[in-house]
């Protein structure tokens, strides 16, 4: 039995039993080491979050602020969005050289775009890019920052080659990062390689089978199965994701598309109603413009499923303002150099 115990109170944070002979133990020690390292990170994070839960805000240090922000981010609720960003800004004000704070600020901006929480996607993506660059300037070998930067390139800019380079660099630095394995799976979905995405998701689960914040990763299963046209499996995962976290808007989209392809439109309509209550502007038009699928055939299959399910072609505001134009005074011009 291998265990991690807190010195101050003898609390067992993590333990695992391995049933093997001494000879076999030496043969598989690298595999055991990878498993231990992969499982410890989320366990330690959960333990640390419990530790700071009773702290007054003014007593939080930079690391505490980031942990609290990650905890709230995984609740996936818009009501916490302002608090999340304030915590991360506080972390930077306490320690301006803390790369993780900038990396998670980048992720929070990107996540808000994916969730449909912001009115100006372009501005939020630009902010995500600025914070991502700062994180990597401070620590070019921060595997978490590299993972977030890679996802930013793939999801926001559709720069898949650059995204994969950053994600592979993260895995070179930390091959036991379940976060990097699962996040890289999303990019493989985007480029039309769902089987590779599923392999990476399996590796992530092998490293960390009980991650308390796995709902985002689990949605990648639903996306991968949708792209692979394995719609029944996509629906199975989609139901789980939306049940476990009903405020996660992206959990509904592959589920709805797969239900559409299966002809299960009555169930799909229920999920469409839930999705539109969370993201009122979602439509086939909005999906087509934003969602980063490299292959046109994959995009059209996905859209076909959404259409069969009954997703509206355009949002209500687009219908209302179809003939209006943005006033020039409301346009923000930003000259921001992008990666790649």
TrEMBL record:
PANTHER family given in the database record: CELL DIVISION CYCLE 16,23,27, CELL DIVISION CYCLE PROTEIN 27 HOMOLOG
Annotated organism of origin: Candidatus Entotheonella gemina
Protein's name in the database: Uncharacterized protein
Region (Disordered) residue spans: 309-340
Lineage, highest ranks first: Bacteria, Pseudomonadati, Nitrospinota/Tectimicrobiota group, Candidatus Tectimicrobiota, Candidatus Entotheonellia
The organism's place on the tree of life at top rank: Bacteria
């Amino acid at each position: 039995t291998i265990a991690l115990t807190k010195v101050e109170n003898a609390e067992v944070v993590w333990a695992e039993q391995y049933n093997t002979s001494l000879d076999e133990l030496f043969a598989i020690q690298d595999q055991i080491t990878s498993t231990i390292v992969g499982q410890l990170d989320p366990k330690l994070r959960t333990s640390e979050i419990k530790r700071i839960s009773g702290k007054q805000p003014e007593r939080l240090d930079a690391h505490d602020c980031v942990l609290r922000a990650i905890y709230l981010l995984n609740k996936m609720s818009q009501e916490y969005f302002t608090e999340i960003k304030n915590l991360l800004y506080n972390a930077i004000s306490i320690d301006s050289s803390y790369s993780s704070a900038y990396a998670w600020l980048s992720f929070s901006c990107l996540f808000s775009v994916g969730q449909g929480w912001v009115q100006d996607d372009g501005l939020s993506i630009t902010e995500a890019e600025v914070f991502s660059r700062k994180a990597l300037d401070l620590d070019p070998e921060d595997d978490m920052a590299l993972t977030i930067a890679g996802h930013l390139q793939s999801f926001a800019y559709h720069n898949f080659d650059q995204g994969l380079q950053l994600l592979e660099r993260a895995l070179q630095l930390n091959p036991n990062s379940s976060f990097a394995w699962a996040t890289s799976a999303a990019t493989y979905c985007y480029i039309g390689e769902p089987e590779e995405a599923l392999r990476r998701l399996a590796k992530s689960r092998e490293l960390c089978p009980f991650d308390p914040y796995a709902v985002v990763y689990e949605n990648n299963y639903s996306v991968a199965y949708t792209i692979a046209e394995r719609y029944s499996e996509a629906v199975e995962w989609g139901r789980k994701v939306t049940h476990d976290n009903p405020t996660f808007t992206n959990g509904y989209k592959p589920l709805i598309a797969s239900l559409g392809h299966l002809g299960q439109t009555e169930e799909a309509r229920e999920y469409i109603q839930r999705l539109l209550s969370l993201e009122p502007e979602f439509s086939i038009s909005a999906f087509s413009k934003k969602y980063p699928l490299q292959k046109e055939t994959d995009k059209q299959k996905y859209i076909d499923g959404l259409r069969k399910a009954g997703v509206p072609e355009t949002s209500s505001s687009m219908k209302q303002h179809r003939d209006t134009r943005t006033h020039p005074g409301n346009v923000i011009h930003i000259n921001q150099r992008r990666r790649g």
